[in-house]
Design goal:
With about 400 residues, this protein is of the alpha/beta class. It folds into 2 domains: about 5-125, Enolase-like, N-terminal domain (Enolase-like, domain 1); about 135-395, Enolase-like C-terminal domain (TIM Barrel, Alpha-Beta Barrel), CATH 3.20.20. It is built from 13 helices and 15 strands. The protein has an 8-stranded mixed barrel, surrounded by 6 helices. The chain has a 3-stranded antiparallel β-sheet with strand order 1-2-3. Helix 1 packs across helix 2. The longest helix has 19 residues, at about 110-125.
Length: about 400
């Protein structure tokens, strides 16, 4: 037994300069585990809630001092004295103490910070890396990273996938070469996909073999009154398309360019449209759910009851706890879905997402732009893990 003797928290800043929660868990032997929590990837979903102060005079209302107080005054007394290796019991107490389905009482940012800090403290006590502690002896898969090349507006977010690499280190080298070439590539009348193809070729690589394109469509924000507003990848900004027209347009992109991944291509409430798109692209392209799905394993079963998708983006913070994340991965795989570990615009320098990805043998990882310590730090952690695994390491999976 390794007894929890103290839990502390503080307000730090994320990559955008917005407050975030950091927690520290101290054990009786003096071992300490620390973790910080990224912002929710799309807070408007309302599924789980962060605890923000709401004081407009301080950080525009985004402070997290209330979440810090919840950790030190409410969660600390509940957890001090517990065995840090009882992660399931710890996480159950966290969710039970909050007592709300959307974690709005204490805040998902408070709960996940403490849960993850406990896992780090356990790792420090055992002198084990986090991926090995959570994933066991079979944790060995380095994911194919998805690097943001352009976007974030109505046209969606375009990413590249270095699928032809033999290892993670080679994937980074490939992505760096393509993204540098992309910055120097002139605009094309066929839009960003054509520019990406040109960049891949200028980097001396083969589009569709060495590098493919992924598009995060964020279709929920485009759908209203049964039609889709401003389109993706070269569509006129005033375009309004029926689900049938949108499905045909996206299928055309897949046919014309090496697009092998579409994330949230149709809106959550447009199930018929998703079926149309799935029939149109067949096995040529992976259809991925992100905002489409809720991050509770039981709710996920309901969401998937009549859906046509191949993979799911899992954001650990949305699951609320470490074991909640593991349960969600298990539930997705029971449904036959591939797993992509997601990232948030409000990332911190905490690199735990890399370890979590390897722990669950996720085949893909949203790496964000190839810039900023909050992103590059996680990539460097993958490199360290690949080095530690040596010949046991595997890159990507089906």
């Amino acid at each position: 037994m390794a007894e929890i003797s103290g839990i502390y928290a503080r307000e730090i800043l994320d990559a955008r300069g917005v407050p975030a929660v950091e927690a520290e868990v101290e054990l009786a032997a003096g071992t300490v585990g620390r973790a910080s929590v990224p912002a929710l990837p799309f807070p408007e979903c309302g599924e789980v809630r962060e605890r923000r102060d709401g004081d407009p005079a301080r950080h525009d209302g985004c402070g997290v001092l209330a979440a810090v107080e919840n950790i030190e005054k409410i969660l600390r007394p509940e957890l001090v004295g517990m065995d840090v290796f009882d992660q399931i019991g710890i996480d159950r107490i966290l969710t039970d103490t909050d007592g709300t389905p959307d974690r709005s009482n204490l805040g998902v940012n408070a709960l996940f910070a403490v849960s993850l800090a406990c896992a780090h403290a356990a790792c420090a006590e055992l002198d084990l890396p986090l991926y090995r502690y959570l994933g066991g002896v079979n944790a060995k898969v380095l994911p194919v990273p998805l690097f943001t090349a352009s976007g974030g507006g109505p046209a969606g977010r375009f990413m590249i996938r270095p699928v032809g690499a033999d290892c993670f280190a080679e994937a980074l080298k490939t992505a760096s070469a393509v993204l540098r070439a992309f910055e120097k590539t002139a605009d094309d009348r066929d839009g960003i996909p054509a520019r990406l193809v040109s960049a891949v070729e200028k980097a001396g690589l083969v589009p569709g073999e060495d590098v493919t394109i992924a598009l995060d469509c964020a279709a929920n924000g485009l759908y209203r009154d049964g039609l889709y507003d401003a389109g993706s990848a070269g569509e006129p900004q005033n375009a309004r398309r029926s689900p049938e027209q949108r499905a045909a347009f996206l299928a055309g992109l897949v046919e014309k360019f090496p697009v092998d991944t579409l994330i949230d291509p149709m809106a959550a409430e447009d199930r018929d449209g998703r079926r149309l798109l799935a029939r149109a692209v067949g096995s040529k392209c992976r259809l991925v759910g992100n905002e489409l799905f809720r991050s509770d394993p039981d709710r996920l079963k309901e969401d998937l009851s009549s859906d046509t998708v191949d993979a799911i983006v899992i954001h650990p913070v949305r699951a609320g706890t470490v074991t909640g994340t593991l349960d969600l991965v298990e539930a997705a795989r029971r449904k036959g879905l591939a797993v992509i570990i997601g990232s948030s615009p409000g990332e911190t320098e905490d690199c735990s997402a890399a370890d979590l990805s390897v722990a669950v043998n996720a085949g893909s990882f949203e790496a964000g732009p190839l810039a900023g310590s909050e992103n590059v730090g996680k990539l460097n952690q993958f490199l360290r893990i690949e080095e530690q695994l040596g010949l046991l390491a595997r890159f990507g999976n089906p």
